[in-house]
Amino acid sequence: MLNDFIKAIEAKGLTPPHQIIADGKFQRFDSDNSGKSNGSYIFYPDEPQSGWFRCWKTGIENTWSGGFSETDPVKKELYQKLIKQRTQERTVKILELHKKAAIKASAEYQNAKSADPDHPYLKKKQIKPVKGLKQDPNTGDLIVPIYCKNGDIISRQTINRDGGKYFLKDGQTKGGYFDLGETTEDIVICEGFATGASILEATGYRVRCAFNCGNLKEVAITSRKEYPKAHTIIAGDDDHKTEGNPGRTKAIEAASSIDTSVVFPDFGENLPEKATDFNDLHLLKGSEAVRKRFDEILIPLNKNEKCTEPNAKQKNLINKSGLRIVKASDVIIRPVKWLWPGVLAMGKMVFIAGDPGLGKSQVCLYIAAIVSKGGKWPVSEENCEKGSVLILSAEDGAEDIIVPRLKAVSTDLEQIQIVKAVKVEKDKERAFDLTKDVENLRRAAKLIENVSLIIVDPISAYMGNTDSHRNTDVRAALIPAIEFADEIGACLLCVTHLNKSGKGSALSRVTGSIAFTAAARASFLVIRDSSDPDRRLMLTLKNNLAKDTNGFAYKVCEKKWSGITASHITWEKEYIDLIADEVLSTEGQSEENKGMVEEFLLQELADGSEVLCNTLYKKAEVMKIHPKALWKAKNKLGVRHKKLGFTEGFVWYLPNVSKPEDYQHSKIPEDSQIINRNLGESSQTSFTEVI
């Protein structure tokens, strides 16, 4: 097991300890061959063997488990609880260490003096002391404070005269930063202090140091929340001599997380071996070379400064427009991330619409169950990555409805958080309001790990005083929630109803302003199958991020245990090829026509042929047969369908039929109301003439 733990450390790109001390206590080790104890680990020797490790320099962290048998459910549950307990105990211990380190760092900083401009490190790096930089009166080491988002010192970094850098033992660096310069409309986020000082001198922009590449993303997200209107740039290191180039990789990842620009130093064709950051560029080519790299991204703060770069001149003109404009070539392209591939996108709003009593809420809770345990999606059987779920339900109680329904579909309840109210005073609460309480959700998401799904059921109950029929009001109310979902990368799944009108497209039937469905990247319709009162259909209304997915069919069932009755859904194992508009449109077929539709379908499939669905639709259109009527006939006659491939589409066929004379013996439901099963010569002739 010790070897497996060592391999897990190596798999994260870290150097493992020479010897693992298996005593269940915190141990230090050199995680990057730097000669510094910048890593920690814990190994629990008792069964089940497990461990944890972290590199404090890069922020790389992982939990390891030796595994256990799943054949014994009692033992499995016991082990899971034990590992969870260990994790909680470790978290408490880390927080205690962080707290002690923060107190020590704050005291050291208060007792320190202002940094000496002639400090050997500052002279070597050709940078000036900045506000907030201090120096230890005893050792002469520079002290760079590390702040958290509330402005408190949580740790510090010391830099000696030779350039050696050391973080305070047990101090927190994740999410911590140090600001250089005064507040500006633009913020540059970089790794090291010297790099930040060189950027500040060259550009005048406010610079936020993250101390290491592993912390860039965390600091970027924090900065975007603190300064949402600021133009944030990630200034990355180019670790071209390091395997995997972590400086470049992590900088791009950080920029992608907030959809912003990233810039790297340009040393020219003859790249110096040890040159990696903007301070190196400053030393080799001067401060002007640093400034020019940022001219390509932002306009110099000094508007009267002569811009030698054509690109910078263009950006000066853009700036005078008063608009924040991003050049297309600077945009980092990112693929759509899916919670449910092709159905539910991460960071986007999705709607499920339908009449009451059709199982919309149960569909959402089933999805929550899949997310909570990292299960498989219906039909496709694709795996879902495990995550946490936030539920806002205005119509169902947690105790008697929501939780029993979740248990009925084997949900990991530890991953489910139900929002019940908003606290306004010590003993007072009010209902959640999506138009003004998104910040509360943001704070909650920070406390809950890996929120990947937010359910709002129904969304109309959380719109406050918004006029749900005014497009501008609805858009304004939804924007904060949509931005929040994008910010944390969670799917915002909203439930709504259909209006009573039977006119217009299926999309226009969604209750309220069209702005609801316009804001959503995908919308789905839930409707009862007219030929089977127990069957429900979930069909695509719109999907802006993928090809319209095939529909799904399910039934609402009940599960009983210990006096509890809870409804849940079971999915059919095949897709259905039906369009929402077709289902909601008026059929307008008489009983006689219904019989003709069934006769037409039998004629087409009587010889056992597999006919493309689209071909049948086209022939039916010539016969003035509506697709909905055709679908009803399909269900009555026991016609089946299957998908030929990703692009070929669906085919329909009659089971157990191989030749024309056998069609009348095909398996047809007993309750079918077929008015004429005998396809005589006259009938056959009439079909031939029309087709």
Secondary structure blueprint with pairings:
Layout lengths: L1 H10 L15 E3 L9 E6 L5 E6 L5 E5 L7 H39 L1 E2 L5 H6 L8 E2 L6 E6 L5 E7 L5 E3 L10 E3 L5 E5 L2 H11 L2 E4 L6 H11 L4 E5 L10 H12 L3 E3 L14 H8 L1 H9 L14 H10 L18 E3 L3 E2 L3 E6 L5 H14 L14 E6 L4 H11 L7 E4 L2 E2 L5 E2 L7 H10 L3 E7 L13 H18 L2 E6 L18 H5 L2 E8 L2 E12 L8 E10 L2 E8 L8 H5 L6 H15 L5 E2 H10 L4 H11 L2 E4 L6 E4 L27 H10 L1
Helix pairs in contact: 4-7, 4-8, 5-6, 7-8, 12-13, 16-18
How many strand elements?
Answer: 30
Q: Which structural category fits the helices and strands? A: alpha/beta
Question: What would the average pLDDT be, to the nearest integer?
Answer: 80
What value does the Rg take, in angstroms? 32 Å
Compute the number of structural domains: 4
Helix content: 25-40%
Task: Describe the structure concisely.
With 691 residues, the protein is α/β, with parallel strands linked by helices. 33% of the residues lie in helices and 21% in strands.
Which tags fit this structure?
elongated; 691 residues; Dna Topoisomerase Vi A Subunit, Chain: A, domain 2; single chain; 4 domains; alpha/beta; five-stranded antiparallel beta sheet; 19 helices; Rossmann fold; nine-stranded mixed beta sheet
